[in-house]
Amino acid sequence: ELAKRGSVHGSLVVSKSQTAGKGRLGRSFASMSDDGLYFSVMLRPEVSPEHLAGLTLVAALAASKAIQNICGITPSIKWPNDIYVNNKKVVGILTEAGTDYVVIGIGINVNTKSFDKSIEATATSIYLETGTNVAKEELLMEILSQLNDLYDTFVASKDLSFLVKDYNQGLGSLNKEVFIIPQQLTLTSHNPSLIDTSALEAVLCLGIDKDGNLVCKDSKEELHYVNSGEVSLRTK
Ligand code: ATP
Predict the structure, then answer these.
(1) How far are the Cα atoms of 10, 98, 152 from residue 45, in angstroms, in the given order?
(2) Residues in CB range of 228: below 8 A, 6 or more apart
(3) CA 95 to chain CA centroid, nearest Å
(4) Regarding beta strands 223-226 and 102-108, do their DSSP bridges make them parallel or antiparallel, or are they unpaired?
(5) In whole angstroms, what is the distance from residue 118 CA to residue 109 CA?
(6) Mind listing the pLDDT tens digit for each residue in 27-76?
(7) What does pTM read for this prediction?
(8) CB–CB of 87/121 below 8 Å?
(9) pLDDT tens, 42-56?
(10) 103/116 Cα distance (integer angstroms)
(11) Can you tell me the distance from the alpha carbon of 78 to that of 168, in angstroms, rounded to the nearest whole number?
(12) Which of 84, 94, 191 for a ligand 1 pocket mutation test, highest count of atoms within 8 Å of Cβ?
């Protein structure tokens, strides 16, 4: 709403808790607990629309680096936009574009002690992984600082070549077999992490390219360039 009303590039809204946090495709993001960090950054990007999808990957790398610096754990990025620790989701990122703005929404389970039954098998928090409470403001400032640097480089270079190496280093599925799940399947599931993948063929994940596509190789050695808008990823 602020973006539509003309708020300036770089505006930040931080929420203590959320009653209607959302994920992709109408899914929800549990954020009622005030132990988490939930914020949105509004940008008026100086990049052309076909490059906007890259912002999600920029945000994921910024959050991942910040968690590493502040919390002393090395999380893994789940392409394109989520962050996991020990195979459980700790950060959700949602990028939404309007006509002349982009809102990057980031939700982090920071000091969260427990989760609802529906996600307790697939969600975790920084506290649950480290046993330490983290100052949310400190983590927020570090993410914004990382985001600022990466965003400026992204705008200057117009593609993601500058972060491919770093991003792939943090990619949990790098050189592993993955399932590329078509949207028809994820649309009908409340928790896509629990989808039955037995009917799908696994492909080898080779990392992202400079446009943010996930490059995968199938059993016939053929390369596929997967676009994030269309699919969900699961590690075999
Ligand atoms: P995709 O791979 O398509 O992004 P996803 O499971 O990550 O799939 P999202 O739309 O990104 O889906 O995020 C919403 C999902 O995240 C919910 O359906 C739920 O499974 C899970 N979830 C919701 N709240 C939380 C939370 N606080 N922490 C961790 N996971 C959560």
Answers:
(1) 10, 11, 10
(2) 53, 56, 79, 80, 81, 212, 213, 214
(3) 9
(4) unpaired
(5) 16
(6) 899 999 999 999 999 999 887 777 788 999 999 999 999 999 999 999 99
(7) 0.94
(8) no
(9) 999 887 777 788 999
(10) 27
(11) 10
(12) 191
Which residue's alpha carbon is at the smallest distance from atom 9 of ligand 1? 23
Q: Is 21 in the pocket of ligand 1 (CB under 6 A)?
A: no
Residue with the nearest Cα to atom 18 of ligand 1?
191
DSSP-derived 3-state class of residue 89? strand
- 136-157 and 54-71 helices, crossing angle to 10°: 140
For residue 177 the two structure tokens come to 């077999």
Residue type, position 141, single letter: M
Q: So what's the pLDDT on residue 235?
A: 85
Instruction: For residue 25, give the 3-state DSSP assignment.
Output: helix
Two tokens at 179? Answer: 């399932």
Nearest protein Cα to ligand 1, atom 20: 191
CB 4 within 8 A of CB 11: no
User: Residue type at 46?
Assistant: E
Q: Which residue has the tokens 């959700």?
A: 92
Residue 103 carries which DSSP code?
E
Rg (CA), the chain: 17
Distance 86 CA to ligand 1 centre (A): 15
Does the C-beta of 193 come closer than 6 Å to ligand 1?
yes
